[in-house]
Amino acid sequence: MATRNGNDGSGEKYDAGQIQVLKGLEAVRKRPGMYIGSTSERGLHHLVYEVVDNSIDEALVGFANNVRVTIHADNSITVEDNGRGIPVDIHPTEKMPGLELALTVLHAGGKFDKNTYKVSGGLHGVGVSVVNALSEKLKVWVKRDGKEYYMDFARGDTTTKLKKLGDVPKKETGTKTWFKPDATIFTDLVYRYDTLAMRLRELSFLNKGVMITLTDEREGQQKSDTFHAKGGLKEFVAHLNATRKSLHQEVIYTETTRDDVGIEIAMQYNDQYNENVFSFVNNINTHEGGTHLTGFKSALTRVINSYAQKGNFLKKADFTLSGDDVREGLTAVLSVKVREPQFEGQTKTKLGNSEVESAVKTLVNEWLASYLDEHPRTANIVVEKAVSAARAREAARKARDLTRRKSALDVGNLPGKLADCSLTDPAMCELYLVEGDSAGGSAKQGRKREFQAILPLRGKIINVEKARIDKVLSNEEIRTIITAIGSGIKEEFELEKARYHKVIIMTDADVDGAHIRTLLLTFFFRQMPELIEAGYVYIAQPPLYRVAKGREEYYAYGESEREEIAARLGNGDGRGSLNIQRYKGLGEMNPDQLWNTTMDPERRTLLQVGIEEAVLADQIFQTLMGDEVEPRRVFIEQNAQFVKNLDI
């Protein structure tokens, strides 16, 4: 609390002199996480996306069709396009070249002028000036108007004036940007080829006709891929369904403009039981959905219900098709281009424009109804799939009711084997899902019962990737988990009813434990994705080794740590022989050891589970847990070299 004499009560002076004024791009370097999310791997890759977005924005308005991204041997990056080239003439009010303005002033760019870019993905980002601010060095070459220009920057500042390098053919235009991330800012300086490839492939699907090339020049990792989707979202859906059995050969597709909103939709049903619907606005993945997705889903439900009623598919049923029913087995991508998108939500990835909902809904009502009438064979397959899902939903109602708690205070409805905690504030409470009764017993004895609840799981839960909801809910272990968490699942999920803000998966450090962990993650991803998105799901990290000598004991979480401890203790000091124990199961630890290594908040390590890349997550879960064997075999062959521990 400030006092009248200008002190804050602690004797420290607080006046205008203490207010920091961060000039230019100092604010970005001071708080980089505010602009790119983090200074670890995620933020490092975001730098590339910001520069690529500029090139894609040129493609969106028809001035570029080729983008090249190169990872150099030193993990620096070059992004080159054949767009118009960043303007180099002197800005009328700022009195500096447009190129310098774009690279050194936050939120300066052509995207703010509606006549230059009608739609823009980069506007949702923070601009190439932030890349400049967070780069040790950055260089830009611009070709336009028959000339080539060059500028040099470092950590947000200009290091050379605009130089004219010489003449080039007038038809040669574009921008080439090279940058090296600042080692004093980032904790991770190594680019992941697969991470960049996934985003660039996604951008090629979303911007049909644009050719995007990614090249890796690093020693031992040399490779190159070109992404070029002439069919746009049709190819995207085919790619997503590659590991699934499609129910109809043709991808249902439309692309049009409605009420000044560009709309592109592609969809195809498969024989699976989960929906995979992805939505984008101006190339931005809207993880939290928004008005465009709401319009699509409501119109889809209405159109398929209408067709089902006209065709007498529901004549003996006493129900209508729900949204979940009509989306079972659906893979769809919805992409809209909006002039002035209004984003909301926790991560600013939820579209709020009401006019977009109306535009999408009107289009789907007209287009899809017409398509189903003109393609009765496909329409019948789609409707029969939805009706089958509805019958399974009705059959699952009783099982679902068993998992539903009457109220947050109705403790008598909790599963008997749950050792609950005494606190009732979800923000303070943790639920450990523990593999096996033996480990569950140790966890119950070692826990802090005030805030830690233990739920032992017997055996392996059902693989929800291969089962419909009625089969899922008939599994006792699944019902127990749903009841304990208290939030419900699927369309009935309510995050505020979750009884724990930490749900921690704790399994053995062997192949069976890894399988159980994957089954649980598949369940959460498919049935409670909001729990993961809220940051409530964690994976415990029990130690792999116990290294003891005399009365001293240490725990190692990897081989290098074990070797370091062994070298430190095994120096022939006469204190006895070295004892190294490899833990294969949590049950091998007594309650004190389990608490000290894996459950004590002061000492444990937890991995938080996230869904930053929902498209990739969907493909991995389908590959690992789906029916098709061949994609799984290929995945294992390609990734076997990365396995750290495998018990045979």
Characterization of this structure:
This protein is an alpha+beta fold and 648 residues long. It folds into 3 domains: 26-227, Histidine kinase-like ATPase, C-terminal domain (Heat Shock Protein 90); 233-400, Ribosomal Protein S5, domain 2 (2-Layer Sandwich), CATH 3.30.230.10; 419-542 and 607-642, 3-Layer(aba) Sandwich (Rossmann fold). Helix content is 35%, strand content 20%. The strands form 5 sheets. Strands 1, 2, 3, 4, 5, 6, 7, 8 and 9 form a 9-stranded mixed sheet that branches. A 5-stranded mixed sheet has the order 10-11-14-12-13, with helices on both faces. Strands 18-17-19-20-24 form a 5-stranded mixed sheet, sandwiched between helices. A hairpin with a 5-residue loop joins strand 1 (66-71) and strand 2. Helix 3 (41-60) packs parallel to helix 6, helix 10 (354-374) packs across helix 11 (376-403) and helix 11 packs across helix 14. The longest helix has 28 residues, at 376-403.
What is this structure's SSE topology?
Blueprint (H helix, E strand, L loop, with lengths): L25 H5 L2 H4 L4 H20 L5 E6 L5 E5 L16 H7 L23 H6 L1 E10 L2 E8 L2 E2 L4 E5 L6 E8 L11 H14 L4 E6 L6 E5 L5 H8 L11 E7 L2 E9 L6 E6 L2 E2 L5 H20 L12 H5 L2 E8 L5 E2 L5 E2 L2 H21 L1 H28 L26 E6 L1 H10 L5 E6 L11 H5 L2 H10 L16 E5 L4 H17 L1 H5 L3 E4 L4 E5 L2 E5 L2 H11 L8 E5 L8 H9 L6 E3 L5 H12 L3 H11 L9
